[in-house]
């Protein structure tokens, strides 16, 4: 069944009480924070690891053969250390943003779950009232519902 009412493939439709935490978080990021996130995402990808290994092998081979940067590869180590120092701060900024996103998502999830629980309690009360009006004995159900509520 489609969530948008059509017979085509289902698409996600936002409920008015469930906000888009991802969009809210993106709107809060500064351009520098967005750039840091993109750099951290790129350096955390497997292709970045493969590329770093290939560059190191090429540099070492080139340095040994041409004597441009012979062992212990001082120039290469200096450049590598500078890049690493910069990336430490870039990744720290991206990690802080990820943490803030997690907090936003947790708050939104808590609000949604609370609304669902209140809605479920309302449905339970309504169903018990309907059952009582139709003459069904609801004592056992009411006691069971109370025991479930107290198990939290």
Number of helices: 5
Uncertain segments are 1-9
Largest sheet, in brief, is: none
- Provide the number of structural domains: 1
Decide which structural class fits the backbone.
mainly alpha
Distance between the termini: 34 Å
User: Residue-averaged pLDDT, rounded?
Assistant: 84
- Outline: rod-shaped
Q: Please compute the radius of gyration using only Cα atoms.
A: 29 Å
How much helix is in the residues? over 70%
Could you state the order of secondary-structure elements as H and E?
Answer: HHHHH
Give the percentage of residues in beta strands. under 5%
Total beta strand runs: 0
Describe the 3D structure:
It is a single chain. The chain is mainly alpha-helical. It has one domain. The chain is built from 5 helices and no strands. Helix 2 packs across helix 4. It is rod-shaped and about 95 Å long. It starts with 20 loop residues before the first helix and ends with a helix.
């Amino acid at each position: 069944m489609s969530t948008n009412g059509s017979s085509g493939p289902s698409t996600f439709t936002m409920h008015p009480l469930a906000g888009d935490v991802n969009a809210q978080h993106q709107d809060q990021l500064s351009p520098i924070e967005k750039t840091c996130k993109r750099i951290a995402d790129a350096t955390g990808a497997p292709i970045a690891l493969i590329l770093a290994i290939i560059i190191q092998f090429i540099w070492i081979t080139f340095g040994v053969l041409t004597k441009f940067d012979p062992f212990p590869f001082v120039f290469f180590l200096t450049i590598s250390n500078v890049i690493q120092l910069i990336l430490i701060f870039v990744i720290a900024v991206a990690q802080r943003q990820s943490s803030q996103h997690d907090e936003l998502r947790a708050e939104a999830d808590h609000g949604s779950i609370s609304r669902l629980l209140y809605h479920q309690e309302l449905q339970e009360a309504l169903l018990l009232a309907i059952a009582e009006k139709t003459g069904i004995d609801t004592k056992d159900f009411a006691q069971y519902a109370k025991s479930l509520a107290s198990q939290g």
